[in-house]
Amino acid sequence: MTPIHVDVAIIGAGTAGMGAYRAARSHTDSVLLIEGGVYGTTCARVACMPSKLLIAAAEAAHQARHADPFGVHVKEVRVDGAAVMARVQRERDRFVGFVLESVDSIPQVDRLMAKVSFQDAHTLLTEQGQAIHAQRIVIATGSIPFLPPLLKGCKTHLLTNENIFDLPALPKSLMVLGPGVLGVELGQAMSRLGVKVKMFGIGGGVAGIHDPEIRDYAKQTFNEEFYLDASAQVKSVTETAAGVEVHYLHREGAWQTEHFDYVLAATGRAPDIAGLGLKNSGLQLNERGVPLFDRDTMQCGNSPIFIAGDASNEIPLLHEAADQGRIAGANAGRYPDVRPGLRRTPLAVVFADPQVASVGFNLDQLHQHFKDRFAMGQVSFEDQGRSRVMLRNKGILKVYAEQGSGLFLGAEMFGPAAEHIGHLLAWAAQNRMTVSQMLEMPFYHPVIEEGLRTALRDLNRSLHIDPEVIERCMDCGPGA
After folding, report:
1. CATH number for the 4-144+270-334 domain, one of 3.90.226.10, 3.40.50.11540, 1.10.10.10, 3.50.50.60?
2. What is the predicted pLDDT for the residue at 475?
3. HSE of 91, CA atoms in CB hemisphere, 13 A
4. Under CATH, which architecture does the 149-267 domain have?
């Protein structure tokens, strides 16, 4: 077969790979985008967008069932599971279509559908034996679901984010293994749509929350809707003709066996690098087999190989994959002129209800890097005016700043409108604002964001910058 010679080869045409392609093309016309699966990106096909479609349906059902306190009485809420899934699939396919339009805009000569592996640091081989000689290479192969040994015997009734959105209708019951971001989002949505859900985890973690007080609050809140044991003992998950049987220790102390239609493996995702033959690349690999890289340049060691997106196993979020792809592609395109790229303030959101948001340094990182040189402020949303008006008054926000300078460092939140408050805080952190500067910003009344102001005032008091917070401060309006 005729060998291919290019300046830059990019393995993977997801969010990171397509970003890398565009960035590399600004420096060289000789770029090849290689895809070994299907076009469409993880976000559009099996993650961000279809999950939010399912969550939106669940929110509609939940709000209808809980309208009585407003004096609005809904006689019956009927969930048509087939219709729910049909809309999820229809709108998902629409989002995928937008991605495919972007792919189609890439010249055919710059695209190759093939699975490849490294022969050496400059040569990739397709499964058919065609050689691709590239002066620089970007690894952007994404990730795949991680399956724990407990689920190795499950096949027909095993769900992951790769196939759950293709269900023709909602199941009657669902076991969720893993109360992380994916598990909490999809498990709560299924529960609100009328599916019997039980969620099991190990180690006590919930939705990636670091602060123990916030995590315990979240556990208690979720347990008001569905069974959640974040430190469960699950002895076995056995597939049957009709579903799965789970033998577990109930949190009240008795072993029991329960049947579910499906088990959802929400146990995380792993870099999709197993078939790349990275041992032939000459790169130094970590204990998981991922190349060591500089997060500011995405360069692997001193080599002409770069890595981006979920393949890097750093931060599996779309905006991070896009940034990494741009950095890796630009540096591959102009190599050996390798430059640090823009890495933004960490921002993560979990679209549960209440939502979870994490910004900047988390509590573990603060203890590691700042020890006793940081202060904390907080607010409860249980009596916050706007939240109470909407009956969304559950949650806690904690904000952190550096002692002495008053520099805002980060925050963690479980509560209403966390996706919006998280963005405000991320912008403040990226602009290196102090807490005093943040408090000079406008706050309207009545809005949920007034709770943020209360937390920031509490933080300034902890920094010994402002006096004690005035309870029921009327210049903020009632319930602020």
Report:
1. 3.50.50.60
2. 60
3. 15
4. 3-Layer(bba) Sandwich (3.50)
> Residue 22: how many CB atoms within 10 A of its CB?
18
| Residue 306 pLDDT class (50, 70, 90 cuts) | very high
* pLDDT band at residue 137 under the 50/70/90 scheme: very high
Q: Please say if the pLDDT value at position 472 is more than 80.
A: no
Residue 252: HSE in the Cβ half-sphere, 13 Å Cα cutoff: 2
For residue 63, is pLDDT > 80?
yes
pLDDT at 469 over 90: no
**Cα–Cα nearest to 438, from 456, 465, 450, 426:** 456
Instruction: Determine phi and psi for 306, rounding to 5 degrees.
Output: -125, 160
Indicate whether 228 pLDDT > 90: yes
Q: What distance in Å separates the CA atoms of residue 219 and residue 247, rounded to the nearest whole number?
A: 22
Q: What three-state secondary structure class fits 77?
A: coil
In this predicted model, what pLDDT tens digit does every residue of 348-378 receive, in sequence order?
A: 999 999 999 999 999 999 999 999 999 999 9
CA separation for the pair 151, 180 (Å, rounded): 17
Output the CATH code of domain 347-476. Answer: 3.30.390.30
Judge if 149-267 and 347-476 fold alike in CATH terms: no
Six token digits for residue 245 = 């049987």
Cβ partners under 8 Å of residue 429, min gap 6: 345, 359, 360, 408, 409, 410
Query: For the chain, what is the mean pLDDT?
Result: 96
- 177 torsion bin: left (phi>0), alpha (psi -120 to 50), beta (else): beta
- Is the pLDDT at 148 greater than 80? The verdict is yes
Number of H helices, E strands in the chain: 12, 22
The SS3 assignment for 218 reads helix
Residue 374 · residue 409 · CB < 8 Å: yes
What distance in Å separates the CA atoms of residue 75 and residue 214, rounded to the nearest whole number?
A: 35
**Per-domain boundaries in the chain:** 4-144+270-334, 149-267, 347-476
